[in-house]
Amino acid sequence: MAPPSDLREWIRLLEREGELVRIAAEVDPDLEITEIVDRTVKAGGPALLFENPKGARHPLLINQFGTERRMCLGFGVERLDDVAAKLEGVLEMQPPAGLVDKVRGLKKLKSIADSRPKTVSRGACQELVLTGDEIDLDRLPIQRCWPGDPAPFITLPAVITKDPQTGGRNVGMYRMQKLDARSTFMHWQLHKDGRADYLASEDRIPVAVALGLDPITAYSASAPLPKHIDEFMLAGFLRGEPVELVRGKTVELEVPASAEIVLEGFIEKGETGIEGPFGDHTGFYTPPEEFPIFRLTAVTMRRDAIYASIVVGKPPQEDQWLAKATERIFLPAVKLTVPEIVDYDLPVAGTFHNCVIVSIRKAFPGHGRKVMHAIWGLGMLSLSKSVVIVDAHVNVHDYEEVFFHVCANVDPKRDLVLTEGPLDHLDHAPTLQFFGGKLGIDATAKGPAEGTREWPEEIEMSAEVKALVDRRWAEYGIPVHSPAGVVQNGAGKRLRQLVRR
Ligand SMILES: Cc1cc2nc3c(=O)[nH]c(=O)nc-3n(C[C@H](O)[C@H](O)[C@H](O)COP(=O)(O)O)c2cc1C
Ligand SMILES: [Mn+2]
After folding, report:
1. Helices (DSSP H) in 338-457: which residue ranges?
2. Ligand 1 atom closest to Cα of 171?
3. Radius of gyration of the chain (CA)
4. What phi and psi values does residue 442 have, to the nearest 5 degrees?
5. Structural domains in the chain, sorted by start
6. What is the pLDDT of residue 495?
7. What is the mean pLDDT of residues 358-376?
8. What are the tens digits of pLDDT across the range 231-261?
9. How far apart are CA 7 and CA 64, in angstroms?
10. pTM of the full predicted structure?
11. Distance, CA 488 to ligand 1 centroid (Å)?
C-alpha cells in the first residue's frame, strides 16, 4: 500500500480506517486542546480533527502519529521494522570490491535515484499567497500547550534552510514561539543543522516553514540525518516517490508543493530575543533562553488549509512514535558503523537522550565498553546520558529482562563507566548546560579474560523440550498462554505489549 501523498489523502485514509474523529464543537487552542489530546493519546485513541478551533479560521489536526498502527499506516508498512528493512537493503548491498564500487552500486539503485526531490512549476500550497499586511498568524489555531507557556507555539513545522556555503538543503523540526502576527522565534538547538546554517550565514538567512504535510515528509523533518543529507531525500526514499517542490514566492528556497501552509521569511543574523519557557518533551519546562527571530515575508496556503499540530510534554505523548520510527529506521545505519550491535532501544520514559539499551554480539574483553564509546561518538546518539550494554540474546525492548541482567551481571565497582561529554540542549540535570556526566553500564556476561571468576551459565530450557511443550500445550488443558510462546514471538510484539501497558 503506497503511503499517503499529502495531508488530505492521509486524513481520508485515517477516516476510512476508523482512526480519525472530527470534533465540531468549538474548542480552545489555548490549553484546552492539549488536555483533550493528552487524554486521547494516553488512552490509545484516534487522530483528532478540530473543525472549529476558537478564534481561528482553519481546522487543526492532531494525534495523527499517536499509535503504532497509525504510524505504520502513514508509512505504508505492516511494522516499523519494515521501514528499516528497506533502508537496510540499500545499506547492506555488497558489491565485490571496495568503497568506490559500493558508491557506484548505490548510485545505480533506482530507489535512490527516485528519492531526490523534484521541482514542479505549480503547487497547491500556493493557491493563496498572502504578503505584507495580509500576513496574519492569528488566522491559524496555533496552540498554547501548557499553563507555563508564555505564548502559542507552532509545534509540527518542517523548517527549510540552505547551507550558505554548499547550498545543501536542510529540513528540521524546530518549534516556533509566536511573537506577533508576522514573527516567531526559531528554536534550533545547539547541535542542530538549521542552527549551523544560520551561524554560517553572513547577514540574513532565508527560511521557509512547511505545515501540514504527508506523514512521511513530516516525519523526515525530525530525522537526525548527517548535515549534508537532505531530509526530503529520505522522505522520497521512504515514500517510493520524490517529494515535489515549488519555488517559494518571496524566498530563494523550494517548498513542498502539497503542503497545506507555507511560511516564508528570513532570520537576520544577531536578531534574537528570549524564547520560552516551554513545556517540553522532557516533561519539564525548558527555561527562557536566547533564540533567533523569524520574520515572515509571505504566507502561502491551500484554500481551506488544515493546520497540523502536536503536543509534547511528560511522556508518553504523540511524539514517542516519531522517535520510535527514528529508532527503528536508523538501526541499519547504526549497525553499519558498529556491526556487533544486534538491536537497541531508547525508552520513551528516557525521553530518548537519557538512556539507550544496546545488545551486542560480545567477542572480546572490554567489548561492552567499546560499544558504549561508539554510541557516545555516533551522530545524535552521542548525546546519550546513559548506555546499558547487554548480550545478544537479551531482548532490549523487554525492560524487565534488561533490568534482570543489569542487576545480576553487574559488579558496580568493575562494570560502571563514569565519564563526561556533550549532553542534550534540553537536559536540565547536569551542572552545566550541554556538558556533563555520562554513565555506561556493562551488563554483559564477563569471564576470566576480564579478570572475573568463572562466569555461571544462564538457565535455559533445551530447545527440544520447549518444542515438545509447544506442540503439546493444548493437550495439557492449562488455560494460560504459553509464556515460552510469548518470548519467542520476538521483539516487535514485546515492544507493542510494553507500550500498550
Ligand atoms: C515534535 C518535535 C518537536 C521538536 N522540537 C525541536 C525544537 O524545538 N528544537 C530542536 O532543535 N529540535 C527539535 N526537535 C528535534 C529535531 O527535529 C531533530 O533533532 C531533527 O533531527 C533536527 O533536524 P536536523 O538534524 O536537520 O537539525 C523536535 C522533534 C519533534 C518530533
Ligand atoms: Mn539535517
Report:
1. 367-375, 399-409, 412-415
2. 26
3. 24
4. -95, 100
5. 7-308 (2.30.110.10), 338-450 (3.40.1670.10), 463-500 (no CATH)
6. 42
7. 98
8. 999 999 999 999 999 999 999 999 999 999 9
9. 10
10. 0.93
11. 36
